[in-house]
Amino acid sequence: xxxxxxxxxxxxxxxxxxxxxxxxxxxxxxxxxxxxxxxxxxxxxxxxxxxxxxxxxxxxxxxxxxxxxxxxxxxxxxxxxxxxxxxxxxxxxxxxxxxxxxxxxxxxxxxxxxxxxxxxxxxxxxxxxxxxxxxxxxxxxxxxxxxxxxxxxxxxxxxxxxxxxxxxxxxxxxxxxxxxxxxxxxxxxxxxxxxxxxxxxxxxxxxxxxxxxxxxxxxxxxxxxxxxxxxxxxxxxxxxxxxxxxxxxxxxxxxxxxxxxxxxxxxxxxxxxxxxxxxxxxxxxxxxxxxxxxxxxxxxxxxxxxxxxxxxxxxxxxxxxxx
Length: 323
Known about the structure:
- The structure is a single chain.
- The protein is α+β, with helices and mostly antiparallel strands and about 325 residues long.
- The chain folds into two domains: about 180 residues, Fructose-1,6-Bisphosphatase, subunit A, domain 1 (Fructose-1,6-Bisphosphatase, Chain A, domain 1, 2-Layer Sandwich), CATH 3.30.540.10; about 120 residues, D-Maltodextrin-Binding Protein, domain 2.
- The chain is about 30% helix and about 25% strand.
- The strands form four sheets. The protein has an eight-stranded mixed beta sheet, sandwiched between helices. A five-stranded mixed beta sheet has the order 12-11-13-18-15, sandwiched between helices.
- Helix 3 runs antiparallel to helix 4.
- The longest helix has 22 residues.
- The chain starts with a helix and ends in an 8-residue tail after the last helix.
């Protein structure tokens, strides 16, 4: 089965037929980004002079090209009104007035890995609309209709959920072919992913959990763990979907008034929907990620996600840092 047939079989597409066209433009963008990355030259990988995104991170040429490909392709969908991108400071408005659909995306997650040929990816999500408020907009995680990500590695893979489980496709001979129609994350695992260099900044409860993983079979959990960290959320979540694990980017003390470092709208929400649909858990230190409401398009969050039993065990230990 290819992706067009898969989309037609989804109930959310029956409810919102325009959503299929949006999804097709999103996955077309991913295919084109994959082709660009495969054909790039070293000169294209250097960051443009003095170019940074709103988070203060250097932008590579690949970031900007990937962002432009998404915006160009999405312009072909008459149902879209707004786009939210990591690489755009403000909301991007399309010249369409038929519908109020909103798409959010991180065009090239993990782009710092491009130079060394490690896996990078694109993350996206689609909402029917945003709620307007006197102070701007509200974006509710539970209102997400569709979410997915593409992984650009040895194969170009696409993970997609329309609210009826999680499917995986690969790009093969000019089409997205379905290889798994119901991915489920194992409830227990023996792998964790965290940037251990930040240990001194974490809250004590996260430090204790990390040390218990290092204790392995001699510790209170009674089993050995392996650590995996790629600096690409797409790569880490893809691995967790296939073989289980737990991923953490927790709150830390370097910026204590900020909920976390990852972006809620175009990283946290889509990944949380995918993980929950695959029978996993996705939380902050205080609540499920999808229960949050974003009041700013670049709002940040902490993220803890993966195998349900592992996340639930850690959740019992955590203390909400901002309460």
